[in-house]
Amino acid sequence: MDSNELLESILSLQPAQSAGDGSMSLEEKTLALIQELIESIPVSIDLHVLKYKFRNDDNPLSVVLV
Questions:
Q1: Which 3 state secondary structure label does DSSP give 57?
Q2: What pLDDT does 21 receive?
Q3: Alpha carbons 54 and 47: distance in angstroms, whole number
Q4: Which among 4, 12, 46, 50 is placed 20 to 30 Å from 27, CA to CA?
């Protein structure tokens, strides 16, 4: 129930229509950002180096990601 309300609230914040000024649509901007992020991800991740780097980091996000 709460998750549905949250999603409805998020969707209600999006613009109803895009500006017709010839700029990229929201979907095109999102796809361009995704492509940029994909290109910035390293091809190979050395898990041993990563675990060593975060060995003293007790941040829950780091713990879960490692």
A1: coil
A2: 58
A3: 11
A4: 4
11-64 residue pLDDT tens: 888 766 655 556 778 888 899 999 999 898 878 888 888 889 888 888 898 888
Amino acid at 10: I
As a residue count, the chain comes to 66
Q: Quote the CA–CA distance of 4 and 11 in Å, as a whole number.
A: 10
**Within the chain, where are the H helices?**
2-13, 26-40, 47-53, 60-65
Answer yes or no: is 9 within a domain. no
Number of structural domains found in the chain: 1
pTM: 0.37
